[in-house]
Structure formats: structure tokens, C-alpha cells
Amino acid sequence: MNVIDGKQLAATVRQEVAQGVAALVAEGAESPGLATVLVGSDPASEVYVRNKRRLSLEAGMRDLHHWLPEDVTQSEAIALIDELAEDQRVSGILIQLPLPPHLDAASLIDRIPTGKDVDGLTVRSAGQLAQRDRGLRPCTPAGVIRILEHVGVEIEGAHAVVVGRSILVGGPMAQLLLERNATVTVCHSRSRDLPRLCREADILIAAAGVPTLLDRSFVKDGAVVVDVGIHRTEHGLVGDVDFSDVSEVASAITPVPGGVGPMTIAMLLVNTLQAAELAHRTSRAG
Ligand code: NAP
User: Fold this and answer.
1) Ligand 1 centre and the CA of 59: distance in Å?
2) Per-chain mean pLDDT for the chain
3) Could you state, in order of their start, the residue ranges of all structural domains in the chain?
4) Residue 283: what pLDDT?
5) Cβ of 168 less than 6 Å from ligand 1
6) Taking 80 as the threshold, does the pLDDT of residue 172 lie above it?
7) Which among 76, 214, 223, 251 could disulfide-bond with 218, CB atoms 3.0 to 4.6 Å apart, if both were Cys?
């Protein structure tokens, strides 16, 4: 059984991004600028944003961070997003979620121009994915695809089962697998007989947000299991998969921590570079 080292793979991807940034700058472009937007002082969000900023700097990008107070109004937040949308130095805009409940997150996200939507979460980016058009893909599912490619899993023709259908993870995950010609089953909280559905999977993606929901009774012998879940418990971080139990039957499995998590930030940097490359090419063509 292969425990997939997402941390190592993420470091490799970030190195590739750093090389891409250097090549872009050598062509005469400004280095890509990542504008992270943090509202308030949620400790977990602060840690995520700090890591994104640090790793973007390490990849040679510019850190264009903005912090807004917890009680910021919708129109003040809109003003900032619109300013970043116009700013030529900004290649990508990332609004750290969740936002305080008084803000309308969906309408703020939708003000991000498609070319700067490095989280791939606007309606237009979702439309591009649905239409199998080019575009920036949501980071976590894109990271899962990169993991599967790295492990050498044949996606085409495989039966992939995705547990979860959220806009952030499960939904785009299913579409990315379909785009690569997997046969995809999407399960959710109303699915009947989840263990039976999961046991059909050659590739099983757990994104339900329920700690250790999936044990070996959900897994076919030799399946590849990717665990997107992250839960802080008194025993440390755990995923949606009972790792030690499922390790006994899976051919490959991602651990938590050290699996999908590090890949999410790496794919954010991939998207930021891609956005900057496209902006540079467009400005040269114009
Ligand atoms: P979410 O918005 O809560 O969605 C969870 C999905 O799972 C929903 O579609 C829900 O079904 C389904 N579900 C819930 N309980 C289920 C059950 N018992 N059986 C089958 N399906 C069930 O969560 P999310 O944002 O997609 O995140 C999922 C997990 O990934 C969370 O643990 C989150 O922390 C983690 N995550 C990790 C990363 C990373 O970088 N590693 C990034 C993002 C999220 P319904 O649609 O029917 O409600």
C-alpha cells in the first residue's frame, strides 16, 4: 500500500511554479501578484492566509495582501474587490472563506474577473468547467487530480466515486474526473447505502466533512483513496477516512495531514501563475 506524500508533491509543484515565474519575468513581465483578502481575525483563516502569502513569496510572486475589519460593510468590501479587479499588478484575487455572516460572499466572489479568479469559484469559472472550456479550476479538486496523476492512476475509464457535492469540493471534483473520462458517481447526505456505492469505486474521493466516516467496509480491495476532509479533534487532525483501517485494503491513500491540504495551496500558486501568464500574453497581443 502506497501512502501518498502530498507534502512532497506540493513542494515539487511549487518549485515548478517558481521556475515558471522566473521564466515569465525573463520575458519582461512583472512577477505575478497574489491579492489575498482576509476579513476579521478567525485564527484558522489567519493561518491559511499566512501560509498562502509565505508560499507565494517563496515562489517569487508579489504578496498584495489586504485585511478588512470584521465589521466591514458589503459596499466597502465591494470597493476593495473592484479596486483589485482593476489593478494591473494583481494577477489573482483570493477571498479567504468563510466570511462573516453579514457579508454576501457569493456576490463578492462574483465581482472577481474570471482571469483573476485563482480560487476558481466564480459563477463564470464554474460555467467554464461545466462547458469543459479552458479556465481556472478550484484548487482543492485540481490538487486531487494532480495527486492521482502523480500516483499514475489511470483515470480514463475508471469508476470514481465522490462523496460530497459541495460547490467548493465535491461538485467540481466530479466534473474534473468526468472531464478526464472517468465514470463518476456523486454521493451526498441523502444517498442510500453509501458503503455499497463507495465499494464500487476504483478511485474513491472522500469530501463529506464527517470525521472518519469511511472505514474499510466502504472500500474495494486495491482502490485508490483520496481524503479531502480535515477535522481538528483531541487526537489531532483527522480526515473523512479511517486511515489505519482503510490502509489495509487500499492500494494507495492520502494521509491527513500531509495529503490533499498542501496541494490546495500549491494549486493556488499554479492558478496565479497561469493567470499572470495569460494577462502577459494578452497585453503583448494588444
Ligand atoms: P460541505 O460544504 O459541508 O459539503 C459536504 C458534502 O458532503 C455535502 O454535499 C453533503 O451532502 C455531503 N455529506 C455530508 N454528510 C454526508 C454523509 N454522512 N454521507 C454522504 N455525504 C455526506 O463541505 P466541503 O466544503 O465540501 O468540505 C468537505 C471536507 O473537505 C471538509 O472536511 C473540509 O474541511 C475539507 N476541505 C479540505 C480542503 C483541503 O485543502 N484539504 C479544502 C476544502 C475543504 P448534502 O449536499 O446532501 O448536504
Assistant:
1) 30
2) 97
3) 29-113, 139-261
4) 87
5) yes
6) yes
7) 214
